[in-house]
Amino acid sequence: MTRRNLLVAFVFVVLACGKRGDPRPPVPIIPKATSDLVVTQRADQVILSWSYPSLTTAGRGLTDIGRINVLRYTEELPAATVGRDPNTILPGDVDPTVPEPVTLFSKIPTIPQAQFARLSTRIDSIEKANLATATAGSRLIYADTPPFRSPSGRPMRVTYAVVTEGGTSKSDISNLAIIVPLPVATPPAGLTATARPEGVILGWETPKTSVRGEEAPVIEGYHIYRTAPGEALNDFATPINNAPVKGTTYTDVPPYGEHEYRVSAVAISGKPSIQSAASAPVRAAFKDLVPPPVPASVTPLLETNRVRLLWDPVEAGDLQGYLVYRIEGRFRLKLSPNPIAETNFTDISIDIGIPYFYEITAIDKSGNESKAVKSETIIVPKTP
């Protein structure tokens, strides 16, 4: 082989080694299925909430969401379980504290996810352009108005799921969120909030009708909500009471300041929560309304053309000082325009030969004034 042929062969081998193979197919971008879908009923709406989709099945960030589909499956209570004979119900068969539709459905198995995928209906979708308006914090919110009763009047059970579409792929069906809608009450009316030394006293009226007006409302108790003035109330907000309030009054002991209150009527306090819409808000300013203790005693000392007063100190962490009053007949004169820190005071404005007695009160930094301790009556005699 000549040197020229060897050079050509070498160049061919080098070029052949740099040739690229067939490109690998792109990894499909599949949104990860939602796993924290929850539901709650507010008034006649079922509110769905779930985390904003952010990951693919490969664990990478999801950057392109086309839409999120909302799926629903409704089932009516079987006729055989409606109007069960109380004589056939065994102890422990039903919970008398739980509304009957919920109790009866608890005996019926829920639909499996695979069967839900075949039987459910897409009731709506949140398009990409509308995702921002449907987002609250890190979660998406969707409101549905499902049937409460079947055409034959039977209770309904409603099952929800969501599916995220991204690019050309879509996620698996989310976890199933199940609820038995109930006839919740209209919002409690007549809410009042009165600040007193022991706290803010709330009172309201018992709702008499359900939100759709078809049957009597189911009321287990009430939830109390406290927010900053003007702050919107979240549908999944946590009430300040640990358990439903059974009556129509409640005493809250909030931090000092102005607060806004709302009350809702609760049909079921467990999960999912079912309750009325919140009442109209009312405001109350809570501050320290408890006065400091009364000074134990006051002693007047007669001096030349004056009276010197001595009293016992008061133990109070927020004490501002003391106020001194002089009483002559029906007249009560305030001798200290501003609270004084000392536990003594000299009155040099007396009239000779006129009977007086004095009162001392304690006042705290919130302006709460104690009751008065009275001195004995004294008369400053004329100087010989």
The first-level CATH class name of the largest domain: Mainly Beta
Q: For the report, how would you describe the main beta sheet? A: 8 strands, mixed
**Percentage of residues in DSSP E strands:** 35-45%
Instruction: Characterize the overall form.
Output: elongated
Distance between the termini: 152 Å
- Based on the structure, what is the oligomeric state of the protein chains? single chain
Question: In terms of per-residue confidence, which ranges show pLDDT below 50 for 5 or more consecutive residues?
Answer: 10-16
Q: What is the count of DSSP helices, taking H or I runs of 4+ residues?
A: 3
CATH architecture of the largest domain: Sandwich
- In which range does the helix fraction lie? under 10%
Strand and helix map with partners:
Layout: H1 3-17, E1 38-42, E2 45-51, E3 67-76, H2 100-105, H3 113-119, E4 121-127, E5 135-136, E6 139-144, E7 156-166, E8 169-170, E9 177-179, E10 192-196, E11 199-203, E12 221-227, E13 249-252, E14 257-268, E15 274-275, E16 282-286, E17 298-303, E18 306-311, E19 319-328, E20 331-334, E21 344-347, E22 355-364, E23 373-374, E24 378-379
Parallel strand pairs: 1-15
Antiparallel strand pairs: 1-2, 2-6, 3-4, 3-7, 5-6, 7-8, 7-9, 10-11, 11-13, 12-14, 14-15, 14-16, 17-18, 18-21, 19-20, 19-22, 22-23, 22-24
